C-alpha cells in the first residue's frame, strides 16, 4: 500500500498573494473565463477525500454564504482554539501535534489529502515537510499586497517541476513534486 499524498492546490497572483489583505478573492473570481474552464478542479477534487485548512480559511469559507463546497470530503481544521465550532458536515479539529496527526492520516487508506490553505498553514506544513505536491495556479493579476502564499519564514526546500499547463485565460498551472 502506498501512503496518501498531501497536495497543495491553490491559486496565487503574479506577485504571490492568495487573497487580498481582508481575505477577499474577488480578483480571482473576476478573471474573465468565457469558456468556463475549471483548471482541472473536478479531476483534482475526485482524487481527494480529505481536506485540511486553517481556522481563518474555514471561517472565510463559511462567511461566503454558499453551500459547503467540500461535502464529499472529511474536513480537518487546524486551530489552537478548543472552542472552535465546526457546523459543517464531517468536520473535525486538529489541535496539538498536527504533524503526527497528518502523518497518521497519510498512512490510512483512502484518496489523497488536499491542503486548502491559508498561507500561514501552508508555510507551517512546508516547514514540517508534510507537503508532497504543489499544484499552483498563477493568475495574470498583480495585487500589490495581500495574504502571501508562503508568509513568515519558509525553510529552503527543493521541488521538481512535473507539469505545466497554460490556459486561454492567462492562468498558468504549475505542478511541483517533493524531491
Poorly predicted spans: none
Rg over C-alpha atoms, rounded to the nearest angstrom: 16 Å
Helix proportion: 10-25%
Span from first to last CA? Answer: 20 Å
Strand order of the largest sheet: 5-4-3-6-1-7-10-9
Question: Could you state the oligomeric state of the chains shown?
Answer: single chain
When the domains are counted, the total is: 1
Return the CATH class: Alpha Beta
CATH fold-level topology? Dihydrofolate Reductase, subunit A
Mean pLDDT across the residues is 94
User: Tally the helices: what do you get?
Assistant: 5
- SSE sequence, one letter per element: EEHHEHEEHEHEEEE
CATH homologous superfamily classification: Dihydrofolate Reductase, subunit A
CATH-scheme architecture: 3-Layer(aba) Sandwich
Indicate the structural class. alpha/beta
Summarize the structure.
The protein has 179 residues and is an alpha/beta fold.
Please tell me about this protein's structure.
The protein is α/β, with parallel strands linked by helices and 179 residues long. The chain has a single domain (6-178), classed as Dihydrofolate Reductase, subunit A. The chain is 21% helix and 31% strand. It has 5 helices and 10 strands. The chain has helices at 26-29, 41-46, 55-62, 98-107, 119-127, and strands at 6-12, 17-19, 48-54, 74-78, 91-94, 112-117, 133-138, 147-148, 159-166, 172-178. The strands form 2 sheets. An 8-stranded mixed beta sheet has the order 5-4-3-6-1-7-10-9. Helix 3 links the parallel strand 3 (48-54) and strand 4 (74-78). The radius of gyration is 16 Å and the shape is globular. The mean pLDDT is 94.
Amino acid at each position: 500500500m502506498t501512503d496518501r499524498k498531501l497536495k497543495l492546490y491553490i491559486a496565487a497572483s503574479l506577485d504571490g498573494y492568495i487573497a487580498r489583505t481582508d481575505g477577499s478573492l474577488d480578483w480571482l473570481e473576476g478573471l474573465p473565463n468565457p469558456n468556463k474552464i475549471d483548471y482541472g478542479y473536478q479531476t483534482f477534487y475526485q482524487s481527494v477525500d480529505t481536506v485540511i485548512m486553517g481556522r481563518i480559511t474555514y471561517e472565510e469559507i463559511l462567511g461566503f454564504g454558499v453551500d459547503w463546497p467540500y461535502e464529499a470530503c472529511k474536513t480537518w481544521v487546524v486551530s489552537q482554539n478548543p472552542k472552535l465550532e465546526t457546523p459543517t458536515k464531517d468536520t473535525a479539529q486538529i489541535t496539538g501535534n498536527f504533524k503526527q496527526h497528518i502523518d497518521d492520516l497519510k498512512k490510512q487508506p483512502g484518496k489523497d489529502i488536499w491542503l486548502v490553505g491559508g498561507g500561514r498553514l501552508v508555510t507551517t506544513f512546508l516547514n514540517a515537510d508534510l507537503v508532497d505536491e504543489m499544484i499552483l495556479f498563477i493568475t495574470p493579476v498583480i495585487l500589490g499586497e495581500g495574504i502571501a502564499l508562503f508568509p513568515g519564514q519558509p525553510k529552503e526546500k527543493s521541488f521538481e517541476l512535473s507539469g505545466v499547463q497554460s490556459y486561454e485565460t492567462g492562468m498558468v498551472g504549475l505542478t511541483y513534486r517533493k524531491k
